Amino acid sequence: METREPLTLRLRAPLSWRAVDVPEPAASEGGEDLAAFDWDALFVVDGDGPRLREGPQVREGPQVRESPQVREGPQVREGPQVRGTLPPPSFTGVAALPGAAADLVLEAGDWAFAQPPRAPRDETGLADAIEAFARDLWWEGTACEGPLYVRGVFEDGRRAVQLWRRIRDQAGA
Fold it and tell me: Using CA of residue 59, residue 60, residue 66, residue 70, what is the dihedral sign?
């Protein structure tokens, strides 16, 4: 899955979400859905960076990345890699109506953000996009915290998927 490098999104106002068991994917202009994944449940982090935890389906074969690599003996360290399927999200929801009670709020502030050029069509495509996002954050040394949010939006006549993770406040670190 081709992705663009993560950007820093400076969210000016909080985004509120209402929990639903199975959100309908955003399918009309202005529609939004959200899934939150616990970063620690998604990834194992070691000296090679984060990689998705083992799941029931494991892809074989090398992962290719056009970025600097560190050679250590006969192996090439490549950062995080997809290892299996995604665990269930810890939260699923839809955008809360203005003034309505919210079950989850994405607070204003700085967020790491990426939007693949084409929305993933299935879980494998989503896992690939999440892997690319995690790898890029790791390669760039972007310090983040909290869950990984997968936001679906319907804009410009098509569904788009965005990946968000809160950038750690370095002043409070």
Answer: positive
